[in-house]
Amino acid sequence: MKLASLKYLNKYFWKYRWRLIFGVICIAVSSWFAIFPAQLIRNGIDMVIEGLEQRRIAGEFALAGELESKIFYGAMVFGVLVIATALLRGLFTFLMRQTIIVMSRLIEYDLKNEIFEHYQKLSLSFYKKNKTGDMMNRISEDVSQVRMYIGPAVMYTVNLVIMFIMTLGTMIAVNAELTLYVILPLPLMSFAIYYVNSIINQRSTDRQKQLSVMSSFVQEAFSGIRVIKAYGRENDFESQFETQVKEYRNRSLNLVKVDALFFPVMGMLVSASVLLAIYVGGIRVMDGTITPGNIAEFILYVNMLTFPFISVGWVTSLMQRAAASQTRINEFLNSKPEIYNTPDSLDLKVQGTIEFKNVGFVYPESGVVALDDVSFTVEAGKVLAILGRTGSGKSTIANLVGRLFDVTSGEILIDGHNVKTFRTENLRTSIGYVPQEVFLFSDTIFNNIGFGLNATDGTLLEYKAIIEQASKDACVYDNIEEFPKKFQTLVGERGITLSGGQKQRISIARAIIKQPQILIFDDCLSAVDTETEDQILTNLKRVMHNKTAIIVSHRVSSVQMADHIIVLDEGKIIEAGSHKELINQQGIYADLYRKQLLEGRSEKVSES
Ligand SMILES: Nc1ncnc2c1ncn2[C@@H]1O[C@H](COP(=O)(O)OP(=O)(O)OP(=O)(O)O)[C@@H](O)[C@H]1O
Ligand SMILES: [Mg+2]
Q1: Residues within 5 A (CB) of ion ligand 2
Q2: Pick from 145, 161, 364, 493: most CB atoms within 10 A?
Q3: Separation in Å, CA 569 to CA 155, 313, 521
Q4: Under a CB-based contact definition with an 8 Å cutoff, are residues 290 and 175 in contact?
Q5: Residue 374: phi, psi to the nearest 5?
Q6: 203 touches 254 (CB < 8 A)
């Protein structure tokens, strides 16, 4: 058992220690009120029996009436007392749940926040290595398993110990031999429950696994619905789904079969105890060792004891599951971000000079050499363009500047300092990055563009003018104004579907809105026509005046205005210079230029 992993949670128990202590007191009090009525009942029954005996002896004497009312009122008093203790027990059980279960919810909340915060710190390579579903499971499924340990398991363990000690003590005081007989079947019950529970857990995990397989399948079918329909593969998916559901059904039935065993097994063992209490107890009453009230009392105790014994089995399996979950959580919490601030990170402001010095980069997971001995310099305020075939390493350069990855060899200098010396927040907030694959949040267009500002949602409205200006500079303002809800239009999963070019331009607006020192455009003009492209690039010159820009593209048209152009091939720079120089070199760039120029002409011809 990996119970040691649960130690991690002790810091939270310490944080909520007062709540925990109060909870334990409530458990003790409520347990005491649970046991106490049994004694009342024993005394009550014995009193009534004794009273009836005296009444029989009294016969027809005048005393009889007095005795009857004495029995009646005595019984009444005991009855009221039993009700009163039941009420008090209820009150303390309520308080116990209010403290312990609420504590478990608070810890669950803290733990989720802790995990999420940690997730955000981890580097991109962590996200490459781990599946999204897996990460989501740890924060939802695993945390709830752990919560079952913090709440119910802790509560029932304390409850169990207290109940057990108190009940057993009272029972032995009444009659040790009877006690022994009565509790004999109970450990068997603990074991049976533990055993049945383990099978239940195993089977419910199996079912859970199938459920996630099924939901990933459905999710993919929904997000890929266009492709499925376009290829006419609906029937195929339907039958695949049917297979998955069948498997799910079988696993559910497997689970239900053992689940159904649970209560009968328990009931049988409890009945065995009760039977023993009556049988052995009856013999002892005839001996005169104990009273009939004692038997009633014992039956109540047996019923009370069943619960702790059930809990032993149940809590043990709860703890095992929680420990397994916590082990998984710890695995993630212990993974260190590869890119982080060191104590001597400098609080430098970025000016914008970027220098690559013999940079090499290998993607650790695939071993692909994405960059090999790449060197170039962009002065602050200048525009660098990167051109190259697909897979040549353009996006890799873009990612390295913002330190989303660290170089494998060589170094990257910004304003003459190694990027690693900058505080990552300083570095990244100085960079406006338009990724190649556009990602917009399921939110309004307004908030998506405003996202670039680092402002909290509440203050965003003050930036209305800036947000509109950014959308104008990105040439998407007119499109937005045409939507019925304008800037308040929802995009992403819940909202309207934007065209590829519209998305790209919103993404551009988001990047330029804060007028960053360094702007990186990763092939983000691919889905807009050349005219709009020209317009955006012209606007950019104004917005990005005196700011550094890196523009990645396939098209010569988007790079010719750059101060410096590099052409990449298989991770190496094969040509570099200004547009003029490169044309004069008559190399690959000039070749591309000619071809694309021709294409551009034919486009114009077909348009007219
Ligand atoms: N996250 C990654 N993990 C492993 N290998 C990667 C990763 N990203 C890119 N690569 C590999 O690194 C090489 C360079 O990729 P990169 O994305 O930089 O190319 P690119 O020039 O941007 O291409 P494109 O024009 O298609 O966007 C490619 O061979 C690619 O397969
Ligand atoms: Mg790319």
Answers
A1: 395, 436
A2: 145
A3: 64, 65, 19
A4: yes
A5: -95, 125
A6: yes
Q: Which residues contact 195 (CB under 8 A, 6 or more apart)?
A: 313
Q: Same domain, yes or no, for 502 and 400?
A: no
Distance in Å from the first CA to the final CA of the chain: 76
User: What backbone phi and psi angles, to 5 degrees, belong to 402?
Assistant: -80, 5
Q: What b-and-e string marks burial along 163-176, b requiring 16 or more CB atoms within 10 Å of the CB?
A: bbebbeebbeebbe
pLDDT digits (tens, 9 = 90+) for 307-347: 777 777 778 878 888 888 888 888 888 887 776 767 666 77
* CA atoms of 37 and 303, how far apart (whole Å): 13
DSSP readout, 327-386? HHHHHHHTSPPSS---TT-B-PPP---EEEEEEEEE-TTT--EEEEEEEEEE-TT-EEEE
C-alpha span between 350 and 532 (Å, rounded): 30
Predicted confidence (pLDDT) per residue in 265-295, tens digit: 778 878 888 888 888 888 888 888 888 888 8
CA of 581 to the centre of ligand 2 (A): 25
Dist CA 221 CA 329 (whole Å): 30
Domain count, the chain: 3
Boundary residue ending a domain (489, 515, 541): 515
Q: Are residues 328 and 359 in the same domain?
A: no
Task: Report the nearest-CA residue for atom 18 of ligand 1.
Answer: 393
Which among 396, 522, 558, 573 is the best mutation to test ligand 1's pocket, defined by most ligand atoms within 8 Å of the CB?
396
Query: Does a structural domain hold residue 345?
Result: no
- Is pLDDT above 60 for 257? yes
- DSSP state, 3? G
Residue 138 and residue 146: Cα distance in Å, rounded? 10
The SS3 of residue 582 is: helix
Q: Would you say residue 338 lies in a domain?
A: no
Q: What is the CATH number of the domain that holds 482?
A: 3.40.50.300
Residue 2 in tokens: 């990996």
Cβ contacts of 250 within 8 Å, gap of 6 or more: none
| Residues 117 and 229 both lie in one domain | yes
Asked if residue 368 has its Cβ within 6 Å of ligand 1, the reply is: yes
Q: Please tell me whether residues 264 and 388 are part of one structural domain.
A: no
Nearest to 37 by CA among 72, 84, 4, 104: 84
Which residue's CA is minimally distant from atom 3 of ligand 1? 363
Question: Which of the pair, 88 or 200, is modelled with greater confidence?
Answer: 88
Residues 405 and 538 in one domain: yes
Do residue 196 and residue 308 come from a single domain? yes
Mark whether 46 and 69 lie in a shared domain: yes
What are the tens digits of pLDDT across the range 101-132? 899 999 999 999 999 998 888 877 787 777 77
- Quote the CA–CA distance of 463 and 474 in Å, as a whole number: 17
Name the helix (H) or strand (E) containing 98: helix 63-121
CA of 443 to the centre of ligand 2 (A): 26
- pTM beyond 0.70: the answer is yes
The parent domain of residue 419 ranges over: 351-430+519-608
Ligand 1 close to Cβ of residue 124 (< 6 A) = no
Cβ neighbours of residue 329 under 8 Å, at least 6 residues apart? 8, 111, 115, 138, 142, 143, 146
Structural domain contains residue 343: no
Q: Is 367 in the pocket of ligand 1 (CB under 6 A)?
A: no
20 and 140 housed in the same domain: yes
